Request: fold
Amino acid sequence: MTAFELIRALAHDAAIGIVVTDPMIEPPGPIILYANAAFSRLVGRELDEIVGRSPRFMQGKETRRETLDVFHRALAAGERFHSYLANYRGGGTKYRAEIDCRSLRTADGHIENFVSFEREVIRRLGRPAGSASGRYEPTSVSNDALTGVLRALGVFKRA
Reply:
């Protein structure tokens, strides 16, 4: 069983958005091969509107080009990307997404896919923290079994 097949088997009911794309990062890619129901709710689109498209469909006028460039460089190098982006739902509503994206590799080290874990975050009230991760908090928290596994893997923690 490949990592992609394992994710598909376990991620369906996860409380956080999970997306698997192909490894092509230049336009028109990457192309979404799998998205779970939580991701569908997050972006305000049905799964059949998501699968087969590039994640770029969520970008809009307040999505920072600098952050997208860092994201692109990380994927090109096969490195982890963890940051925050302004994205847009199907109806045009802006939201802040925390994204933790990692490469899935074959046994010989080739990048086979990218997996992205995504959740909506809001700015913390009060004095801002020194780092980006301290400025935001998730809009919801889950304690399902998969969330515990993802927490153990360091998802949503700085690399």
User: Anything to note?
Assistant: The first strand starts at residue 17 and ends at 21. Helices lie at 3-11, 37-43, 47-50, 65-76, 132-135, 145-152. The CA atoms of residues 2 and 108 lie 13 Å apart.
